[in-house]
Amino acid sequence: MKVIILRGISGSGKSRYAEKLRAKYREAWLADPDRDHYSDLEEGVVIVSADDFFVDEKGVYKFDASRLGDAHATCFGEYLDVITAASEAVGLVIVDNTNAARWEITPYTLAAASQKVFYTDGEFTGEIPVEIHRIECDVETALARNIHGCTRE
Questions:
Q1: How far is CA 145 from each of CA 3, 6, 18, 65, 148, rounded to the nearest angstrom?
Q2: 124-138, pLDDT tens digit by residue?
Q3: Which of 1, 37, 70, 104 has minimal Cβ neighbours within 10 Å of its Cβ?
Q4: Distances (CA, A) of 66 to 62, 63, 70, 72
Q5: Spatial separation of the C-alpha atoms in residues 112 and 134, rounded to whole Å
Q6: pLDDT tens for residues 65-85?
Q7: Cβ atoms of 43 and 25 closer than 8 Å
Q8: What is the C-alpha separation between 88 and 82, in angstroms, rounded?
Q9: Which SS3 state, helix, strand or coil, does residue 121 take?
Q10: Strand 124-126 versus strand 130-134 pairing type
């Protein structure tokens, strides 16, 4: 298992990048001759995002800034559920949030570092590795694409 934490302003393309990572990983997963022993997960990739909290049962995104704390708490809880399960079926976990400040990333990196990963044969594989990918784009593009109503300030 590996964790990739995305960083970037709203509208920078983090979710699009996460989907590209998912597709790339899925390609490799489908080529793996040992994939039959994986669970019923479709591709071995989990994307956790605070934005998912704002998607209603009909799939409509309704952002509410007053619930942002709840959204991030839910996202982190989902992340913990995935990494503590340490399943061989999950090879990649992507954290798709702005993560603009180090304090926003720290809980994710500490949680990954605290996990000692063992697989079914009892072999210790170490801590979960974490990569941070910074997604950049010009401010005007980000402002035009963001779905949170963020302003230049």
A1: 26, 17, 16, 17, 9
A2: 566 788 999 998 887
A3: 37
A4: 12, 9, 9, 12
A5: 19
A6: 899 999 999 999 999 999 888
A7: yes
A8: 11
A9: coil
A10: unpaired
